[in-house]
Amino acid sequence: MVADLLVLAELFPNGISRYAIGGLFVGLGAAVIYAGTAINAGASTFLESTLSYVSDRSRFARYAGSRDWRLVFTLGIILGAAVYAVVYQDGTWTTDVAAWRLLVGGILVGIGTRVGKGCTSGHGVCGVGSASKTSIAGVLAFLLTAIITAQIVAALGVTP
Amino acid sequence: MSTAGGNEGRHPLFMPLILVGGLIFGFGLGYSHMARPEVVLDFLQFEDFGLLFVMFGGAAVTGLAYVVVPRLFDRAPLTGDRFGRRLKSFDRNVLIGGGIFGVGWGLSGICPGAGYASLGVGNLPILWAIGGMFIGAYAQGVWRSRTAQAEATAASSD
């Protein structure tokens, strides 16, 4: 029993409640939008739909009809996180991860989510919730390469 | 998706509901600490497995919604659209794109939704990542528009 607890403490050094409660809220946000509108909300189509404001290319223009509410959804996400920060966080929080990692990683995330038809929220939360085999395959693909990449980068001594 | 795509004749509560949904979603990303790249990297380096609870906790709630909501309403109250699950067709792009996404996620520790939320907790350096996501999505869109055009031209000249 004590040994089990020690293993748990090792796997979850910060406990699980913040993760589980946070996850429930993420799902609830998507569920509220779904219940009212039948829309399966994902976070990454915002990138293309917002690009339709500045580019006429067909790939972006096809999202022109949804670009306004996707902008509102993203503003909501920013504000919601700000509410969390005001209530629970001491002032602002900034990352120590190097700028080049954020930029290069961001570019690959931007390409990958569009090629792969979804991201962590579209595939991970709505797709897995739909028991979609496509989304489960997508999640397994990005989890695998993300774990390999993060482990290699850490092994090379890049911190953080 | 039909009504949701257009903006004429939208229900007056459509935008407020999207905003409220986004607020709850973003609050959850903040509360789960997923808006912090360090926490994601700790997960990917097997130092803290808590992030599994964020994704599966979220998927459990949406999964419940996909079962319960269509039994409560015939059509979505604010759009009149029919309820469907999020099912996309599978092809090898799902694996290729997912693989590229994962390399980027593993390098930066941030994904789109968590990136927006990260701005909300005051993490201005995350603009590097969000800028990168726009660059990546733009490059992919330009390439895809060009391929689609080339295919259309090839087809019409047949």
TrEMBL record, chain A:
InterPro entries: Sulf_transp_TsuA/YedE (IPR007272)
CC terms in the record's Gene Ontology section: plasma membrane
Record bears the keyword Cell membrane: yes
Keyword Transport: yes
Topology in the lipid bilayer: Multi-pass membrane protein
Keywords: Cell inner membrane, Cell membrane, Membrane, Transmembrane, Transmembrane helix, Transport
Main location: membrane
Name recorded for this polypeptide: YeeE/YedE family protein
TrEMBL record, chain B:
UniProt keyword Transmembrane present: yes
Pfam families in the cross-refs: DUF6691
Segments passing through the bilayer: 12-31, 51-73, 94-119, 125-143
Keyword terms of this UniProt record: Membrane, Transmembrane, Transmembrane helix
Record keyword Nucleus present: no
Annotated protein name in UniProt: YeeE/YedE family protein
Top-level taxonomy: Archaea, Methanobacteriati, Methanobacteriota, Stenosarchaea group, Halobacteria
